[in-house]
Design a protein that fits this description.
single chain, mainly alpha, Helix Hairpins, about 85% helix, Snf7_fam, endosome
């Protein structure tokens, strides 16, 4: 994979690693030199102190050597500081590079995730979720209501209504009963028939 700054990521990583390894080797050598010079300085200081009364020339020679070692030590310490700063800079730059590479990878992953998404799809999905939640709530309420005890008075009213419907049905489906003449009506009909017969008899006699 090619980086944003040119060259491959693997080469950049190896280059930084090699540079740090070489700097560490040089740092170890300078640190050894530093300890050696510190020992030489301490030794020449001890000689000068020992000879300060007995042999002035020897004491002066020891001080000159001490001064030379101190100059070399100062130079060595400066080199150590420079190398440590370089190592820190390379490590920081490499860390920044690796961090940026990870962030770029995360950004690419987010782009792939969001590739099939937009605000309209999100709104539509959220609306569907709300609808399904409402349906689930209604179903839950219905299930709860199914378990609630029924009002007895409501059952009695429904029972009365059913009885009335059955009575109405029976009355509508029953055949009509024949109309029976009352005794008074039958008597009136007989008198009328007798009168008709009497009238016919009278007409026959007159014709003779």
């Amino acid at each position: 994979m090619w980086s944003w700054f040119g060259g491959s990521a693997a080469k950049k990583k190896d280059s930084a690693k090699d540079a740090i390894l070489k700097l560490r080797e040089q740092l170890e050598m300078l640190q050894k030199k530093e300890k050696h010079l510190e020992g030489e300085i301490a030794e020449q200081d001890a000689v000068a102190r020992k000879m300060v009364q007995a042999n002035k020339n020897a004491a002066m020679t020891a001080l000159r050597r001490k001064k030379t070692h101190e100059t070399h030590l100062a130079s060595t310490v400066a080199q150590i500081n420079t190398i440590e700063q370089q190592m820190h800079s390379i490590e920081t730059a490499n860390l920044n590079y690796e961090t940026l590479k990870v962030m770029q990878s995360a950004s690419d992953a987010m782009k792939k995730i969001h590739n099939g998404m937009n605000l309209d799809k999100v709104d539509m999905t959220m609306e569907e979720i709300r609808e399904q939640q409402q349906i689930a709530e209604e179903i839950g309420n219905a299930i709860v209501q199914m378990g609630e005890p029924t009002d007895e008075s409501e059952l009695l009213r429904e029972l009365d209504s059913m009885k009335q419907e059955q009575l109405d049905t029976q009355m509508l489906s029953a055949p009509s009963a024949p109309v029976t003449a009352t005794p008074q009506a039958a008597k009136g009909k007989t008198i009328e028939e007798d009168e008709d017969a009497e009238l016919m008899k009278l007409r026959a006699e007159m014709a003779m």
